[in-house]
Amino acid sequence: MSEYKVFDNILSFKGNGPNKDYLVSPCTIQEFFKDSNKLIRIPDYQRPYSWTKKHVLDLLTDVKKLTESPNSSWFFGPIFTVKQSVSVEETDLLDGQQRITTIQILLRELSLFQFYGNVNFENDPSYRKFAKAADACKLCLTKTYGIDNKKAIFTTEETIKDLFNQYIIDFDEVNSFDSYIKQFEKFDIDLRKAIDNGSKTAETIGNTISIIQRFLKDNYLNFTDSSISKKLDELYSFIECLLTKCWLIEIPMQNHQDSIQIFESINNRGKSLTLVDKIQYKSIIKISPDKLPLLRNKWKSVYSGLIALESEGDIKSEDDFFKVFINSISGDDITKEEDFLQKFEQQYLNHGDDQIIKFVDEALEVIKFYSIMNNWVADENDYIASFAVTEQPKIRALLHLLKRTLAVSDNCRFLLFYLVRNVNFTKSQNNKMANWIWGLIKYVFIEEVLENVKSNTLRVKIMDIINNGIPLDNIEKVRNFEIQNNSFYKLIHNNDNSESKFVLYFYAYLKNHKVLFSFAPVQYKNSHLEHMAPKAWKSGWSDFAYSNENILECVSSEIHNYSNINGELFLKELQSKETLELKDYVTAPLKQEDTLLEFIGNKWILHAASNISASNEAFQIKKEKYYLKDSIIKIPSNDQITTGISNYNSFSFKDVISRSFEISNSISFNFHKNWNEVD
Asked: pLDDT value at position 226?
């Protein structure tokens, strides 16, 4: 290895006071890890490892570029640590976790490279130099204490600690292709188990390992027998650049509380500090020392919970969660990061330890509610079990309907967070919680489906509800809403698939709530909205054709049978449409947004694979092929009176109209029922 240090031209100095030398100095990657008195660990409150493929490839590419410029170097950035004293080994990594974790994986893979392809490198003249570099990588990964007592120099966050230690320590003993394969198979099994158990961090680490392996194989294992030396020399150069030409400045702090001012000025090559990071660090700095361990553990739980929510698709990001959370405090509708921080400080941070703990506890309560909602089918759901036995099926269905409501209305998350903040998970408040959920769902149904309120307008209305502290079971709009006097056109004719699914879920809850928890969660998650008569109507549905006059005549004769629909208004709206007739086509089917195909009466929710397998078949084939299978999801159910598939021997445009009226009329008739009065 070269003796030249890339930072030799940097000015070094002593501190201002006598007898004080600041322990801030530049060091290479190799020196940072080989420090004889350092074991680096991630504090348990830190966010998990989350680098993307782009981050990893950027790092690898930057190191490779160094091999093409002999006199260049790469400043890796500052690394902030906490160490109680010079003599203590344990060093907490405050900033730089993403970079350090990735480099540790890269070092491990470089040490294993010679076993990737069962290639005999040892007879090549360049092997000895390469092997020495690979050993240098290993020395940056583990320390040996006595006989057979190895420790990883770097320990990642707690949720993945054992698996990562296995990756670092156990692979240290690999010395042949066979032992590599054996160890890799064992590690891969454990990695898959962690991923299957919901560890997003394990998945990210697995992805990073795969990205690095592919990069090394593509760049250095792609050779002929005559070019082995050349590739080994190139890889040696890559390792040397990583270890000796990449450098950083470690800034060791004596305690965690000293770090917040530094954190807020950091913007490195990794992930910039998020809003959540800043809130967390501010709370850690402000809290009393005796409450700090408790707060750290709570933040650890917050990060774990947010990973689960993001994986489930419930939130867009950590920051997204806390922006909704802070806006749900008093309905301020703020958007700028500095305003979110100011709100946090004014409402919680500046009012002592109890308020700081309260903030994190409230966030954990929201996370807990999502977990309850996402496990609406699970028998071990303690919250559902706290209801009376007769009410448990209905609360299961209600929670599932709420999940569908959140999918159709991004704005209603503000109301959900507001709900959780104001109602406790106690048995005495079970009925209140359910009433508030039902009130929230009905409010979204009115605003989003029936009245088609624009997103920005609805957000303002929701913030007004929160600002005025209105109970969600007593929203005036819901309480006084005379649904039968309003337009039903958007409910019946809706081009938005997500809203149409919401309508069918809402109808199912009112008429046959058990269908909302009778199947496996994965079936609901992967279900499709099926159009019974398809847009490719000319093959199996040619007799489905109709004219505008046919529709108006059918509606005029049918509508008086449905007393809970404003038939006169609906007919007037229908007459104003230019045409509802099917669009003709020659080869490729056309979109049919303005036709009868988009009426709610032409729609079902079905098992995805089954829907795909018979999407354009004729009615009888569809019915025989999968509608009669009890094991797959169907909403409404086959035997649902008047709207289930069992009621139809054929399916014409008249059936679409009458079924649309039946669904709409039933929703109108049952709309003001309590949550526990549904069928």
From this structure: 61
Tokens of 335: 């958007």
Going from N- to C-terminal start, the domains of the chain cover: 25-263, 275-488, 497-677
CB count in 10 Å sphere of residue 513: 22
pLDDT band for 19, please (50, 70, 90 cuts): very low
157 burial type by CB count under 10 A (0-12 exposed, 13-18 middle, 19+ buried): buried
- What pLDDT digit, counting tens, does each position of 362-384 carry? 999 999 999 999 999 888 899 99
* Residue 274 neighbours by CB distance under 10 Å: 15
The Cβ of residue 320 has, within 10 Å, a number of other Cβ atoms equal to: 18
Q: How many other CB atoms sit within 10 Å of the CB of residue 482?
A: 10
Rounded Cα distance, 245 and 7, in Å: 9
Query: Rounded to whole angstroms, what are the CA distances from 570 to 447, 474, 488, 552, 580?
Result: 18, 29, 7, 11, 14
Give the pLDDT of residue 509: 97
Whether the ω angle into residue 289 lies within 30 degrees of 0, i.e. cis, is: no
The mean per-residue pLDDT over the stretch 36-59 comes to 85
Two structure tokens written together for 95: 């900033």
pLDDT tens digit sequence for 417-457? 999 999 988 899 999 999 999 999 999 999 999 999 999 99
Angle between the N-to-C axes of helices 567-575 and 548-558, in degrees from 0 to 180, rounded to the nearest 10 = 170
- Rounded CA-CA distance 237/221 in Å is 15
Alpha-carbon gap, residue 552 to 558, rounded angstroms: 10
Which structure tokens are listed for 475?
A: 């929203």
**What amino acid occupies position 230?**
K
How far apart CA 241 and CA 232 sit, in angstroms, is 14
Tell me the three state secondary structure of residue 313: coil
State the residue for tokens 């999940």: 403
Q: What residue has token string 């989350």?
A: 50
CA–CA dist 273, 281 (Å, integer): 10
The amino acid at residue 567 is: G
DSSP tag of 379: T
Which of these, 48, 17, 234, lies nearest to 124 by C-alpha position? Answer: 234
Alpha carbon distances (Å) from 379 to 372, 393, 523:
11, 11, 17
CA dihedral sign of residues 107, 108, 111, 114: negative
Q: Which long-range contacts (CB under 8 A, 24 or more apart) does 617-624 make?
A: 617/540, 618/540, 618/541, 619/532, 619/533, 619/540, 619/541, 619/648, 619/650, 619/651, 620/650, 621/540, 622/532, 623/648
Instruction: Spell 585-622 as b/e; 16+ CB within 10 A means b.
Output: eeeeeeebebbbbbbbbbbbbbbbebbeebebbbbeeb
Identity of the amino acid at 326: I
What is d(CA 153, CA 34) in angstroms, rounded to the nearest whole number?
8
Decide the pairing of beta strands 142-144 and 90-95: unpaired
Residue 548 to residue 538: CA distance in whole angstroms: 18
Longest dimension (CA), the chain: 99
What torsion do the CA atoms of 148, 154, 158, 164 make, to the nearest 10 degrees? -70
* Residue written as token pair 């394969």: 181
Strands of 51-104, DSSP E: 74-82, 90-95
pLDDT in tens, 314-361: 999 899 999 999 999 999 999 999 999 999 999 999 999 999 999 999
